[in-house]
Amino acid sequence: MAHYVGDSMLADLNAGSFFVQAAINVTTGETSCSSTSCTSAWPGATVAASSVTEVHIESSHGKLAALITLSSPVSIAFPAGTVSVATFEVQLLRFRVASGGAQLWPDTSNMMRAGWNLFMLNNDGSHGAHNPRFFNAIIGDTLAADLTVR
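Request: output the structure for the sequence above.
Response:
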């Protein structure tokens, strides 16, 4: 299921350019924006279509996030200065269609639901043993959903 979610995310990201807000530099852990340092003008970077080579869905500060690897670096402004990065982490709610645009994956999208399903199943200590019907139904429903938005 993780591969299906990641592959669907990769297809969406490569279908057109997109904007990322509040990226996290995976080398230093520094974020480009904190909740107190940003207002309506969120710093970020526009990423060209077809430039994402790898996506891993993960959790960042209790939110769904993606670890993104690009074919070539983009410049992102961090408090310590602008850094050129090819790998960075972004919470899913910080992916935008364009700078100042709508969320790429709204909170009610199948992608967000699939991400939460994935984390729910991955964090189930019983690995489905206590409620296998529910566990298998979640997997089946997630795999049957169209996760792309573009």
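The longest strand covers residues 63-78.
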